[in-house]
Specification:
homodimer; 582 residues; alpha+beta; Aldehyde Ferredoxin Oxidoreductase,  A, domain 1; Aldehyde Ferredoxin Oxidoreductase Protein, subunit A, domain 2; Aldehyde Ferredoxin Oxidoreductase Protein, subunit A, domain 3; 3 domains; 17 strands; globular
């Protein structure tokens, strides 16, 4: 009945089902994946070689009735950043893993035979590892259909498309959501790691699972109510996000002058009106579709949507701000329907929206594509990236690598990972997070936009340096803890503003496991996660000079505020200096 | 009459001619370029951005009558390794710079206008910086012809081909030699740095120079005689190299099981007989050409050659072991004439033989090319790399980057720079040099092959670890000093075996400048150069984990000896640990 560690060795196609070591017992999600990677992976190993490991773990509260607890974490040494990576996603896998008692799934080794791909099926008592030559070269939706034919329709599916098979750094791992569409374990090229292990898809049995056990069901129910209420009453998680989706941010960030446009040349986009959340919501109202939609069971924020074309036919879902920004503002495509079409294609082939979009934005500084050319972007992905042509390989290798191949200087990456949809020169707290998180440029690692722009958790002027280092540090610590619970990042808004929210979250964890965590324990957990991630990175060869934004942001002022990135090296190093000495 | 620093600022197309600061007075070659880069370049800058600098310097003895003193050094932050780089080459530039009184030429900044390339002409009293739209897209020999039309035929010319214009990491800087052919400032992608500064070619006036001044001409002449005798009487520099060229090494290294073949899968090549120095010498005898040939005035080793085709027409010159190994053994091309044809093409387009050859060897693990296909290799370079097609950009980005783009694991690089023609698993002292030199994999940085295979400076078993760390350390220190004199690396053989050689070299420096260097001073100079290079690298983000060979060499035994790379991290870190703490 207790949780187990499921360990698959692809070198000899064997598996073990192990008891959970005591030291891992209180960990979940990012806390668990980063701990396992840190303990078991040689930081100097090749990320696509036999000594890297791919670790999946549901959050501590996944599988429970807690709202918004359905995130699965995946960890490994990243082929994109060369450091440790945790990426998390909605979808159905977290809940099913938790209910089946899968504390973590660890994939090790690489098969001797390089010509075969495998399907890994995890059930309560065994793991089946079978060659699937018939699925090689297929994309995500076709693989999903095949899995739904084979198993109970609720089966959890995690799969890679051809870019993952070809070990491209933009490849993600796609996770089936409750509607049979995909969510993404997006960042850091972990789809390439899955491809290197010759695994085409992983399924988790959904027939024989049980509801999770609560040490104190009554207390859990009580805390859960408070938590849900807090989520629903917050103006952002309760109103803004449900009404317009994450894409509500286009107008807000554009108005703040922080919407990176034309490969990070301005903080304003000419296209904001065509691509903003309000336009999207209007289209959905006219054409049918859904403005509110959850990525996993139990979501009360419902920031996702179903987006139809002009004829009312389904185009895509999970049509997020980052995607729309990357293609609409940074690559300059005006047509929201074209962006939706690209989004659907990317869900099918399995590539990270941010890394891919920013790579194409950078490619618009070369002869590969022109700004605004949506057809060309679509064709590049469908006929070059998905097929693995030389040009497709270049785009598929991500922003930093494309920059190297074309000898470019204005390359928006940190630790070789593409910078997301908030311009660090205009949203400086967010820039501190990009620079100093162990993950490489990642907006979710410490979402300072909340306090810089959205007045959540107070207000700190986004154009000034004052207070940003501390803001980012505190958010990063809290986020590392939240990433361990299986909660989605948007619980940050009520957590920052409603004093009842975080205690309720902690009460749920305590009631689930019969323990007595305090708020300090949670802070310590977050801090400790970052500490072990930084230690891994240091051994892997990342240094303080990896905790920097691209040099061009220091000497190129960003319109409309004409600000530059002006944090000194010493200031940036002070974010975690105390922790490294601990 | 005294030497000057010539400083060119490409941002505003200006120049200054400055007195040599006292601290740089006793430096030349690598010692000077590494010092200037270390003092003036921000280690965190983008190597292709406005804050990198490209520094040319002749050696301390360049321009004198000392044998083999004609090497020019060039330094910068490398776009390939991300660390400091010094590359040196024969040709006529060192002598002419020295005689003109150019202690160093420093190129800074980047022009605002990205569409123009410039020609920089250095004379005694001024520097001309002129746009040369007519030379854009031209290759080296055409640029050279144009310069020889404009100036005295002795003019020194340093130029880049189209790969350099396109800022590819395999691009070198080509230096005119006495015969009007090219030598290469090959490694580390410094041709890309020259391209980033929008300089198509640099010429040094050869009309108004004077013979260099000797503080003690008699003492110099005396020491010079001893030194030359030592070079001529050594069996390697006096017999083996003149008779068969550097390519004498193919059979020797193949026999030792250390000739990397088929992308570092074996230490033996099937093709050794077809491509070895003995075959080459026979061809030259039959077809005409020259077996002995110097790359700069005053060379007494004459390891170079002129190689003709079957009809007796000129094919190429400077046809070196590394080139022949990379294409003949590692890429597996059997036809020496085909390799010569590729060599001539590479001289023309200006790409590094080692980086390019090893990249194509790695590419043979993909669908880009098959092992042994010389025609395809030629076409890839002529129609893809030189034209900058996507595939050409991939090959042009070098071994490490191609590995990333194709998600490969068996990638033979250190610090992202391709490993040269001695297998570290079978020539372990050389492996220590590859791992620990600040330069990235570089055989010339500490040529342990001498003592591991050639019985020069004693003998240390190449397959065992004993003694290799110390051997490599001592050679690296001596080499850093020798690289500062303008001497070619092959003076190492007599220096290791003849007790009169090194004192004579030091006497020449003393007699030239009227100083009193001791052998200890020279050791200190070498050690100090490595120290500042390592400090630069550390600030640039390279760490001890950069001082490692590729992981696959640790678990993949190399035939025929079936040895693996078995130095521990601690052993490798001990090479320079004492120096970092100094």
């Amino acid at each position: 009945m207790s949780d187990k560690i499921y360990r698959v060795n692809m070198s000899n196609l064997s598996y073990t089902i192990e008891d959970v070591p005591a030291k891992w017992m209180g960990l979940g999600g990012r806390g668990l994946t980063s701990t396992i990677v840190s303990e078991e992976v040689d930081p100097e190993c090749h990320p696509l070689g036999p000594n890297n490991k791919l670790v999946f773990a549901p959050g501590l509260l996944s599988g429970t009735t807690a709202a918004n607890s359905g995130r699965t974490s995946v960890g490994a040494k990243s082929p994109l950043t060369g450091g440790i990576k945790e990426s998390n996603s909605g979808g159905t896998s977290a809940g099913i893993m938790a209910k089946l008692g899968v504390k973590a799934l660890i994939i090790e080794g690489i098969p001797e035979d390089d010509n075969t791909f495998y399907h890994v099926h995890v059930t309560k008592n065994e793991v089946l590892i079978e060659p699937v030559p018939e699925l090689v070269g297929k994309q995500n939706f076709e693989v999903l259909d095949e899995m739904l034919n084979r198993y109970n329709k609720k089966v959890a599916v995690m799969t890679i498309g051809t870019p993952g098979e070809m070990r491209m750094s933009i490849a993600n791992i796609s996770v089936k959501d409750p509607q049979g569409k995909f969510r993404s374990l997006g960042r850091g090229g972990l789809g390439a790691v899955m491809g290197s292990k010759k695994i085409k898809c992983i399924t988790i049995d959904a027939e024989n699972y049980k509801e999770v056990h609560y040490a104190d069901p009554e207390k859990f129910k009580e805390a859960s109510k408070v938590f849900t209420k807090s989520l629903k009453e917050n103006p952002i998680s309760g109103e803004g996000l449900p009404a317009f989706g994450t894409n509500v941010l286009v107008n807000i960030i554009n108005e703040a002058g922080g919407l990176p446009s034309h490969n990070f040349r301005s903080g304003n986009s000419d296209n904001a009106e065509e691509i903003c959340g309000e336009t999207m919501a209007e289209n959905i109202k006219e054409r049918g579709g859904k403005t509110t939609h959850g990525c996993h069971a139990g979501c009360v924020i419902q920031c996702s949507q179903v987006y139809n074309d002009k004829e009312g036919h389904y185009l895509t879902s999970g049509f997020e701000y980052e995607m729309i920004w990357a293609f609409g503002a940074n690559l300059g495509i005006k047509d929201l329907d074209m962006i939706a079409k690209i989004d659907a294609l990317m869900d099918d082939i399995g590539v990270d929206a941010i890394e891919t979009g920013v790579t194409l934005g950078l490619a618009a500084d070369t002869d590969i594509i022109e700004f605004g050319d949506g057809e060309r972007a679509y064709e590049l992905l469908k006929y070059e990236v998905a097929k693995g042509t030389p040009l497709g390989r270049i785009v598929g290798s991500g922003t930093g690598n494309l920059g190297k191949i074309y000898g470019l200087v204005r390359v928006p990456v940190v630790k070789n990972q593409a910078i997301p949809a908030y311009e660090p020169r205009a949203v400086k707290g967010q820039g501190v997070t990009y620079a100093t998180t162990p993950m490489g440029a990642d907006h979710t690692a410490g979402y300072a936009v909340a306090t810089n722009i959205l007045n959540s958790g107070g207000y700190i002027d986004p154009l000034k340096k004052d207070g940003q280092l501390e803001l980012s540090r505190n958010l990063q610590i809290a986020t590392a803890a939240v990433d361990s619970t299986g909660m989605c990042i948007f619980v940050a808004f009520p957590a920052l503003d409603d004093p009842k929210c975080l205690p309720a979250l902690i009460d749920m964890i305590n009631a689930r496991f019969g323990i007595n965590l305090t708020a300090d324990d949670v802070t310590n957990l977050g801090e400790n996660i970052i500490k072990i991630e930084r230690e891994f990175n240091k051994k892997a060869g990342l240094t303080s000079s990896s905790d920097r934004l691209p040099e061009f942001m220091k000497y190129e002022p960003l319109p409309p505020h004409n600000t530059v990135w002006d944090f000194t090296d010493e200031e940036l190093d002070s974010v975690w200096g105390y922790l490294d000495d601990k």
